[in-house]
Fold this protein.
Amino acid sequence: MEDYKYLFKVVLIGNAGVGKTCLVRRFTQGIFPPGQGATIGVDFMIKTVDIDGLKIKLQIWDTAGQERFRSITQSYYRSAHALILVYDVSAQPTFDCLPVWLREVEEYASPKVLRVLVGNKVDRDDREIPPAVGEAFSRMNNMYFIETSAKDCSNVDKLFQEIARELIQTMRNQRQETSQARQPGTIARTPIPMTGPLVNMRQLTLMAPPKSPGQNPTAASLDPPVL
Amino acid sequence: MAYDIPSPCDLLVIGTGLTESIVASAASRIGKQVVHVDHRNFYGSNWATFSFNNLQNILGSKSLNKDSTKTVEETQNLNINLNSNTICNIVEKWYLPDEDVQGNIDNQKNLEETINKVPKETLTKSEILRDSRKFNFDLSPKLLYSRGEMVDVLITSGICRYAEFKNVSGIYTVDNVKRTLLSVPCSRADIFNSKDITMIEKRLLMKMLSMCVECETKPEELKEDEMGNFGNFLNAHKIQGKVKKYLIDAVAMATDSTNFHDAVKNIQKFVRSIGRYGNTPFLWTLYGSGELPQCFCRCSAVFGGVYCLNHSTQTIVIGSDGQATGIVSDNQNLKAKFILIEDCLNPVATIKSGISRAILVTNKALTSDQAALITFPSVNSKDPVRILELSASTMVCPQGFYVVHLITHQVTTAVEDLKEAIDTFFTVFESNKNEALNKPQIIWSLHFNINEYNSPAGMLPSNVYSSPGPNSSIDFDDHVIQARNIFKSMFPDEDFLPRVPDPEDIILEGSLEDVLEESKENHKEAQNIHE
């Protein structure tokens, strides 16, 4: 198992065609364009980034095309640590849809999720949304803001690096708070901390027993089944 | 931004309930083009989970729907039954003052605080609705046996990565006379540590459990009992009192009259499931059971399934050979090789029975468990009532509240069918009364019935399948089996939900080509240097 300190789940949303998949592919594989059909069977992409010497694994989830008919499953939003809302700077309608997306986020995502607004395709010369407009919207909605181009790669690495950096910071702050406030013996209920390889500390994640020896430490100490 | 729905497709699924979603994911998984539509604007149809506000919206639109009449066209095509009131007899009650009153109370509070009195503890409707999204109410709450069909398919398919679970930590039945909860010991250690039953009873219980489990390998030993029902079998072995209650109400999830084989199958599953993830056999899906259909839908989408909620479907089009050719959906012809329709929309389905359901929000727990399953045993040969008490740690309500689900087979209406069970354990919330009664108080309640349907064989074209909606059983396993059967009948030689490759193991075409090309170029360069 690869060595890393933290694992974060990052999900992308936004209208179809704004370049969500391109951003993910550009970042995780350095390719553009990703080629159609390649998304079949890919649930999320993984990339490990280095933040001040810490290895951070980002698990980046794409919409699997469910945004085309506005049919994203709510479970997609659950347990996300960061959420990237993407629009296309050269297509006004993708910007106009942002409030609709935010309503969905309010309803289903954790209130503590890190929210980032991304204006993509800045390489294009037919821009319709000036940077200031995007920034104003992000400020109004308490989001981070960045403009990117998956095509010429500008700001793509920065976007994910900053997310990783921010998530670590949030986690450190929370850890301090909880370690002060927590009673001995109780389990922390913060959504962020996921230390170590995919062991979800908060609740059971179903794993096939042979694939996860010792993943469920409590199970081992339990009495054997009745018979 | 018009996106076309692929047509023709291999499988067109109507309704996003659990069975439909499982079949959709299984078909997508083997490379079939799936189109999955639902006229509702949410996932899960009668299996859905709602926040407080969404539930209120749904209930509102339900009553609006009631008057709409369907125009039946005189064609050979089958009209999809969008107006079926699958959920009916809805009764919603608040036992709290609403916001107007709150204003007064707030003023009062301020006043009281200024004169240094302890403010009265009050709770208002608007306060609860402010936390709307923290509530997750299931239409059809169900548990997973840790070694049941659902957990199996979630693990083998890899779909378990989309959901999280918690162990049900306590299983109870109810003392007939005292009307108090009796904790059911599950593991061997629980049984021997139990203070509720005598040593002899413990031995008897263990003996019965071994017998039922072993009859899988030694079926000949039980021959004489096979004819009878489970109650007779227990009587024949002189099992009485608490041990009998444990076995019937909890371990076998049965009644006296349950067929012996079914009861034994349940006992085997119960025993097998203990210890895998915890001390009881059951798991609860965090955020509600409505997450599970969505997990399968996500899997289907990842493998190319096309999803359209809010997309009404009008008719199933029948070709000249009597086979369905597709459907008319939002005035668009969608062609498909196979069609799967959930039975409440199925034009030929008839109502066969129903489920009586109640959802309560209470202010106090009956048990100290994060999630508890309580069986209120059958009275007057009615079916037992299964009660699920869920705390905030199961992600269905804010801290300090509890969501209680009651489920039983419908006899009259949900209100009547569940009255006795509710009155036994709960009282209504009255803010000015002292909590002397000590029972958990109901802050809000919702009663409703869900219809169960019968889809008569041979009435649909052979390439149209009807899938069952929720039933009153406590687990998902019947539906997993039925979904697998539907899938196998459509695609007989294909694997049912084989493991999804680990995203970290996938090598993508693009990247691989790049790597190869690079290495080719490097190779050329190396050769050039050589030359």
